[in-house]
Prior knowledge:
- In chain A, 34% of the residues lie in helices and 22% in strands.
- Chain A is of the alpha+beta class.
- Chain A is elongated, with a radius of gyration of 37 Å.
Amino acid sequence: MNPGTDILPPSPGRSWRTIRQEVQPLAMSRQGRRRQMAGWVKAGAVSAFVAGLGWGLYALVHSWATDRAGLATAVHSAPVGRVALITDGVLTQKWAEEMLALPKTASLMALDLPALRDKLLAHGQVRVAVLTRSFPATLVVTLQERTPVARVQADTGVGAAQPLLVAKDGVVYAGLNYDPSMLAGLPWLDGIRLVRAGRGFEPITGMADVSELLSTAQLQAPHLYREWLIVSLARLAETDELLVKTQDIPEIVFTRKRAFFKQVAQLDYIIDRAHALPEPALKSVNLTLEGQVPVVLETAATATVPPKAPPSNFLLQPSQRKAKRDL
Amino acid sequence: MISNNSRIVGAVEIGTGKIAVLVGEIARGRSLNIIGVGVAPARGIMKGEVVDYKAACEATHHALEMAEKRAGVRIEEVWLAQTGGQLDAFYNEASVNVKSADNTVTALDIEAVCQMAKEKELPAGRTGIHQIRRPFQLDGRIVPAPEHLSGRRLEVGYWIVHGPESKVADNIHVVGGYHLEVRELVLASLASGSLLTTPEERSQGVLVIDLGKGVTDFVLYRDGHVLVTGTLPVAGDHLTNDLSIGLRVTAAQAELLKLRHARGTVQTRDKTDKVWLNGDGAFGDRQLSKLAIETIAAARTLELLEVVKLKLGPAFAAEHCGAGIILTGGTSRMPGIEEAATRVFGLPARRGEAPSWVKEELKDPMFSTVLGVFQFGLRGAYEHAVPARRKTGLLSYLTRIFATT
Lengths: 327, 405
């Protein structure tokens, strides 16, 4: 405590400061009412000023978000000199420039980046597009592209049916700049109904399962995958089954209820065993059952291998089977 | 031009005879520039108390408006001088044993003893105005700052000034009727004393008596501290009243006689020495004995000063009042009043003089209280933590605007 503090206002409990100072308007003099009115006018003016200031800020922010080109006139920046493309796929800078179609005189600040990004995303091959200004005059376009997992024939309304590509997320698109030999190796999709959405199609449902099956086959048994021609999703929604048609086997039934890795291994084994038969032509292989694999041979009407008791090594684990086969 | 860091404060004294308003621009809470003055004859005030709210408002607001017009700015807040016959005070003291093992006084001891001394309840219906601390005593010796000193027993006393809540509220509401907030309430005697005395005089001991029209305020300083304050509902009006009765004249004529011929002590020896009642030679004018006027005025003045002395009681001791008596207020302009005070108190008396920083036109005793309000408030702003400085900044500005609408 400061000893110099020798005169204090009284404690708040019983102090004149607790006396209410507001006076009823009727108890005010003419001058007092005039002052009060002036106070209100002042408060109103300040409120209006603050509100105007707030509105101005809002308008500025709104304008920045929606009409950047208008604002850009106030910002000095150079015209776009170069578009730099960074991508993890096969699209080229030329394609990016054609898609963006920037006016030659457009300054970097005047670009409406969200609109340009939408332009790029309109092409199904582009999964993610990020556009950044690199001052003074470079527009950097960073892309992440979709990878095709299958092909589909679709009627695009411009004549005959066209082959389109389908990505893992089900997006259907016309691929650009892919290696034709890679595309030729992709299986076709069947048993689907393409629904139009704008200029393209709705994503195909169930493609995640298809993609998983195909990638498993491609990695674990590439010699089998190379033979696959068509993957049908016709029974996927109802019975969780995927039908695969290969060059040699008209129907292989997979189920998404079980691990594809195991099913592919079983198929590999069955095909190996079938080759050992005198007439190796398989008509149908059903991998949907856990313990048994019904197989229809081309020669027999309804033959089943194994008929009742499968060979003891029929369902060996792939690692065991592989070891045996290598021997 | 008013700077952004300044505030416009109105010092207001609602007296029995006149309403005085000074407008001051206070920059950085310290430097004062008086930019406007407003004075209006008081109405609706009796002995410093509002008895006719409407009339008091009209007079006060007229003075406020005049001061604002002359200053060219709007007053933002008011520091109000408080007086009135119903103000009272009492002394309350407390003591504590020093708590630390080595008997060193700590801040906690000081806070505890001060808190105890201030805690006494006010009578019902009363509101506190000031709590004035007297010097600390450590084992019986007076110490201005006891912290870190050694001792066993710490004592302190507070002079607590209070007034009737309704009367204080009336004064505040008169200002509120002009749509202004009273931010500080300063006892009129403290305001006058603060202006007219120097720190040296307060250390030596000095008694300041503010003789107004309806009320006499006084403050006694000793050892640099306020020892006693007081207010009496007796002042210049009583001289006028006695003259009116004694000479059988109207109150207005008595007031004129007082201003022209009254004295604090009798000087006239010639009983035949006469003065004209009106002095205009008109019909009804008559001659009155000058000795009679002086005798009545001197008797009343001596009586008034005796009452002050009586009210001071044992607190007043001539040997502790080395700087003498200082007289101020409108009635102090009466000739011979210093001799009367000297005769009553046995000490040299003089009229208070405003400090050199006060402009010539404001050196009249009628401004000593409002000037003192500024002086007291400004000194308090950094020495006594009174009044609190207002916050600056845009947000505070906006808050103030809406708070005052």
